[in-house]
């Protein structure tokens, strides 16, 4: 059998499987999520110089002082979002390099993603096109106000940590919709799930986490 040259080395299936195994050991249970982590080419979302580390369970720099989220966190947030739930539309705040966007796009009919740094968004858009994701819409904007035009949302996932939950995001949740968001100051953040119910909202806290802060306004640098 001829060797699959492309599959050898840092981006090989074996390396990806090893990452999935680490995530299982850390408590990720959803086979669907693990499958998507195995399938999604994380090396495609980072600088070539860092590609050899793409399947390590770590955050990595993506420029503009930002990082691609740690795979465990992407898996955990996705698992919380999809558990026993059909997702029509999902809003993501903090596109970054677009890795998590593409993971979510494999579970939802439509993903709407908002990023405040223009340069990051432009690169992410190119990746969505190259990988042929036609169910992702994106916008250069401040995620603190959400994206009301396409709401209310079945799911909202936030990739940067505010001190308190932005009101607009709660308002843009559909009935039974879920908001997964890291909350708190650097060094003491927790992952929070807010579910909209008939008579209000439910809150449930998960892991301690470490996200970049959610900032206000937009950044036009490219
Ligand atoms: N899931 C992304 C995470 C990137 S880090 C990835 O894996 O690449 C968090 C991102 O949130 C950064 O790109 C940062 O610019 C963005 N961000 C921070 N505050 C924001 C805000 N108010 N609105 C939109 N994006 C924001």
What distance lies between the first and last C-alpha atoms, to the nearest angstrom?
A: 46 Å
Amount of helix: 25-40%
- Reading the helices and strands in chain order gives HHEEHEHEHEEHEEE
CATH third-level topology of the domain at 59-209: Rossmann fold
Short note summarizing the structure:
The protein is of the alpha/beta class. The protein is built from six helices and nine strands.
Would you mind describing this structure in some detail?
The chain is an alpha/beta fold and 222 residues long. The protein has a domain at 59-209: 3-Layer(aba) Sandwich (Rossmann fold). It contains 6 helices and 9 strands. A 7-stranded mixed beta sheet has the order 5-4-3-6-7-8-9. It has a two-stranded antiparallel sheet with strand order 1-2. The longest helix has 13 residues, at 13-25. The N and C termini lie far apart (46 Å). S-adenosyl-L-homocysteine (SAH) is lined by residues 62, 66-69, 93-94, 96-97, 99-100, 114-117, 120, 142-144, 159-160, 212, 214-215.
Secondary-structure blueprint:
Blueprint: H1 13-25, H2 31-39, E1 60-63, E2 66-68, H3 71-82, E3 87-93, H4 99-105, E4 108-115, H5 118-130, E5 136-140, E6 153-158, H6 167-171, E7 173-183, E8 189-197, E9 200-209
Parallel strand pairs: 3-4, 3-6, 4-5, 6-7
Antiparallel strand pairs: 1-2, 7-8, 8-9
Helix pairs in contact: 1-2
The protein binds S-adenosyl-L-homocysteine.
S-adenosyl-L-homocysteine (SAH) binds near residues 66, 67, 99, 142 and 212.
């Amino acid at each position: 059998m001829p060797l699959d040259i492309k599959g050898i080395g840092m981006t090989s299936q074996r390396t990806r499987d090893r990452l999935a195994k680490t995530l299982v050991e850390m408590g990720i249970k959803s086979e669907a999520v693990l499958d998507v982590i195995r399938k999604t080419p994380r090396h495609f979302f980072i600088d070539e110089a860092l590609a050899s580390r793409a399947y390590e369970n770590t955050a990595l720099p993506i420029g503009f002082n930002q990082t691609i989220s740690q795979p465990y966190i992407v898996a955990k947030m996705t698992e919380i979002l999809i558990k026993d739930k059909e997702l029509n539309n999902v809003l993501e705040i903090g596109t970054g390099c677009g890795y998590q966007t593409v993971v979510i796009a494999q579970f939802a009919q439509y993903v709407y993603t908002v990023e405040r740094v223009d340069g990051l968004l432009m690169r992410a858009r190119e990746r969505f096109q190259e990988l042929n994701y036609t169910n992702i819409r994106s916008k250069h904007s401040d995620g603190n106000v959400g994206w009301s035009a396409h709401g209310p949302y079945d799911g909202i996932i936030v990739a940067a940590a505010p001190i308190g939950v932005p009101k607009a995001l709660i308002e843009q949740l559909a009935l039974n919709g879920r908001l997964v968001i890291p909350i708190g100051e650097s060094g003491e953040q927790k992952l929070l799930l807010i579910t909209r119910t008939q008579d209000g909202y439910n809150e449930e806290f998960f892991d301690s986490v470490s996200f970049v802060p959610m900032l206000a306004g937009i950044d036009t640098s490219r």
